[in-house]
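Work Package 3 (structural annotation) set out to generate three-dimensional models for the target panel prioritized at the project kickoff. During this period the team completed the workflow that converts sequence records into discrete structure tokens, so that structures can be stored uniformly alongside our sequence database. As a representative example, we reproduce one entry of 205 residues exactly as it appears in the project archive.
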Amino acid sequence: MKDNKGAHYEVYYIPLWNAIISTDTRSPRYQIQANFDFKASSSNINKLIPPLNRQSDVMWAVWKTISKTPNELRYICRNGIINDDTKGVMSDIFTNKGPARRPVPWPGLTFGIDTEEGQALLGTPNGLAVAYILMDRAKELGRRKVSVTIAASGGDPDQPELGYRMLWDLAPESAPSVTLSLPPPGLGLTFTSKTASATRRPVTT
């Protein structure tokens, strides 16, 4: 999705793996607040943004049109996270929970939604779209056993400019517990164009 205010949602949809991969997102509200020199009130901003503007709504609308089983959505991956607020939360978690007190490559660190870390990540700017999907689409998705895995993008913790990765697993409540030693199929891909051509990296994703 793109509009004339510079807002865009660069997202890849992979029905085969019940996965949505978000690589670059800037909402209309964010773009207006970031690029305009005046302090607009919320009511004025609302007049400038399109009715369908929230990332969670856009992703779900597209997902429903291309997936034959949209209610089976399982994975939502946020790649190349550079948002300062989100990175701050993730950095704190890496420092407090990481084996070397620093960002770690895949398979990263995994937390259940019932943990302090999982709830903190859900409340970040890059986790809110997942939160809204879980709340707004609860009837369609049913009860889910949610967990989140965080890691350094590119697999190199010494290259923070590559950003971080956040993978949400929205497992059905009845699904068996799975420990991911590698990214789910497709989620270890490095996308090279908006047509979703990709090359697979091995363990370093």
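Residues 179-205 have pLDDT under 50 and may be disordered.
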